[in-house]
Design a protein that fits this description.
heterodimer, A: about 150 residues, 4-stranded mixed beta sheet, 4-stranded antiparallel beta sheet, B: about 80 residues, alpha+beta, 3 helices, about 25% strand
């Protein structure tokens, strides 16, 4: 069971976990939630994406994860539009019979969301707006799965 | 073919999309970038240095030597920053 959603609305983490839990052989459900950091002077984050390609890239990496690990369910939800510090941006939920596959697949999917899914962040900080630069550490994290 | 621009490219070019016929001398993505750079202005600024850019053909990430054809959907954008 896979679910991919690109949406402006907040997501319900408990409902998404419940949706992947309790199935026959599901013994482990791992979630990762990414938030807008509130430790700086950032007042707003705005996310744009490439409709169509985003969904294809995410589906491709979910298929890749399913080929590497025995997954019983995957959910990826990514928000777009205006977000405030503290808001949740991204949710990855993976379900498997055992925890190792679920943990690893969640990390794999996040590394690829960071480096391949066509989203761009624009930050408003101290009244000034600029596009966020990509981080080389994210590229390095994704490379270890090659 | 359709060209799409995202993030600061879209802002600087003041457009997110345009259509054009494939020029005769354009065989791959690097050729197309050079063709766009030759327009000068914001195009010259952006496509004069493709090391800061990434490209996709028909919604798949591709390298600059990837061949293109009329009818393709080609997107240019900065390195992605989602997640």
């Amino acid at each position: 069971m896979t679910k991919v959603a690109i949406q402006a609305e907040p997501f319900d983490i408990a409902a998404e976990i419940a949706a992947l839990s309790g199935g026959g052989n599901v013994g482990a459900v791992v979630t990762f939630t990414g938030h807008v950091r509130s430790d700086s002077t950032t007042t707003e984050l705005n996310l744009e994406h490439y409709p169509g390609m985003t969904e294809r890239e995410i589906a491709r990496h979910i298929a890749d994860a399913e080929a590497r690990w025995p997954l019983l369910g995957v959910t990826v939800i990514h928000r777009i539009g205006a977000l405030k510090p503290g808001d949740a941006i991204v949710l990855v939920v993976t379900a498997s019979a055992h925890r190792k596959a679920a943990f690893e697949a969640a990390e794999f999917l996040m590394d690829f969301l960071k480096t391949r899914a066509p989203f761009w962040k624009r930050e408003t900080r101290g009244g000034e707006t600029h596009w966020v630069d990509a981080r080389q550490s994210d590229d390095a994290a994704a490379k270890r799965w090659e | 073919m359709t060209l799409l621009y995202f993030a600061w490219l879209r802002q600087k070019l003041e457009r997110g999309e345009e259509t054009m016929a494939l020029p005769d001398n354009v065989k791959n993505l690097a050729d197309l970038a050079a063709h766009l750079a030759a327009r000068g202005g914001a195009y010259g600024e952006i496509f004069g240095d493709i090391t800061r850019l990434r490209a996709a053909v028909n919604q798949t990430h591709e390298k600059w030597d990837t061949a293109i054809s009329d009818g393709d959907e080609i997107a240019f954008f900065p390195p992605v920053t989602g997640g």
